[in-house]
Amino acid sequence: MTHDIGFIGLGNMGGPMAANLVRAGHRVTGYDLVPEALRQAEEVGVRPARSAAEAVRGADVVISMLPAGRHVLAAYAELLPAAGPGTLFVDCSTIDVADARAAHELAVTAGHRAVDAPVSGGVVGATAASLTFMVGAEKEHFESARPVLEEMGRKVVHCGAPGAGQAAKICNNMILGISMIAVSEAFVLGESLGLSHQALFDVASTASGQCWALTSNCPVPGPVPASPANRGYPAGFAAALMAKDLGLAAGAAEAAGLPTELGRRAAQLYADFAAAEGAGLDFSAIITTLREGGK
Ligand code: NAD
Fold first, then answer.
1. Using CA positions, which residue lies closest to atom 20 of ligand 1?
2. What's the mean pLDDT when you consider all of the chain?
3. What band does 295 get if pLDDT is binned at 50, 70 and 90?
4. Strand ranges (E), the chain
5. Which DSSP category does 276 fall into?
6. In the predicted structure, residue 293 carries a pLDDT above the cut 70
């Protein structure tokens, strides 16, 4: 089924996601505050709108890919009255669980349907249409969103009620952020004990220390040729984005009265790194600060 899609936020992620929807045959009208982002989207077949409201007029599906919760809530204030009744709003941004629930509530109150569908897979996944979508929605709204999400991703998981997609996203990234620090600390300790990177990798990757941070995004050069560590840590997943996601996890834990001690400590380490030299580097470059800290 072909849809009229309004796409708000055509940045690093939204741009290629919108391009994949065009490629799949949908009519996509887009809007971004940055003219260059809008121009690039136009080049791949997105019809440019002069305002967010204009982008959603006549759309039956509205997708947003914006930096943070405050941007989504501000955009919804403009979009909800401009959209036709019963429009399906799909927010793919990574935002606070509470903001996601508030956005859902606003959409439903305005007579629309809404799902949260944050993603994993980064710009590479957005470009290759291989993202994983974590969806929070009522079952029937999930089923309505699924075919459109499948044009932009390889895996679409219904995580539960509205907000559950964001909850899954920040819990997963809390595991990833902590495990990358655990792997990094182990390599740094191994170095000081005279253990080669390869020897530690050969043992841990086939033993109980095995995890994605070690076997796919290894923070030291050598054992995993494709990992950013081999090329000076260009961002696959930037430290600044990891800091953002762990900040959201820490905020959610605080609201729930949970200590999540390692999650909070990891959030602080990535935030400090991102505020210094690490913002644009891959999050695995956190290992460089762990070595310095030991000097
Ligand atoms: P980005 O900064 O490249 O893009 C965001 C775009 O939104 C910008 O072009 C900005 O101009 C636009 N924008 C902001 N407010 C707007 C408004 N009111 N109306 C229209 N456009 C507006 O960011 P990104 O990397 O594309 O990330 C987008 C979201 O995806 C974030 O929530 C991020 O956490 C999440 N995410 C990013 C990655 C990644 O690897 N980049 C991975 C997973 C999830």
1. 32
2. 97
3. very low
4. 4-8, 27-31, 47-48, 61-64, 88-91, 113-116, 119-120, 131-136, 153-160
5. I
6. no
**Ligand 1 center to 117 CA (angstroms):** 14
| Atom of ligand 1 lying closest to residue 15 CA | 26
3-state DSSP call for residue 236? coil
Centre of ligand 1 from the C-alpha of residue 220, in Å: 29
Distance 8 CA to ligand 1 centre (A): 9
Which of 66, 134, 270, 282 to mutate to test ligand 1, by most ligand atoms within 8 A of the CB atom?
A: 66
Region at 124 (left for phi over 0; alpha for psi -120 to 50; beta for the rest): alpha
Q: What is the pLDDT of residues 198-245, one digit of tens each?
A: 999 999 999 999 999 999 999 999 999 999 999 999 998 999 999 999
Our answer to whether residue 155 is catalytic in this structure is no
Query: Which atom of ligand 1 is the closest one to the Cα of 34?
Result: 11
Two structure tokens written together for 231: 């090329």
**Active-site entry in 155, 169, 244, 295:** 169
Q: Is the pLDDT of residue 294 over 70?
A: no
Looking from the CA of residue 122, the nearest atom of ligand 1 is 40
Q: Is 280 left (phi over 0), alpha (psi -120 to 50) or beta?
A: alpha
CB 235 within 8 A of CB 281: yes
- Asked if residue 257 has pLDDT above 80, the reply is yes
Residues 122 and 237: beta-carbon distance below 8 Å: yes
Q: Rounded distance, CA 130 to CA 19, Å? A: 13
Own/partner contacts of 11-15, CB < 8 Å, gap of 24 or more, are: 11/37, 11/65, 11/67, 12/123, 12/126, 13/65, 13/92, 13/119, 13/122, 13/123, 13/126, 14/63, 14/65, 14/92, 15/40, 15/41, 15/44, 15/126
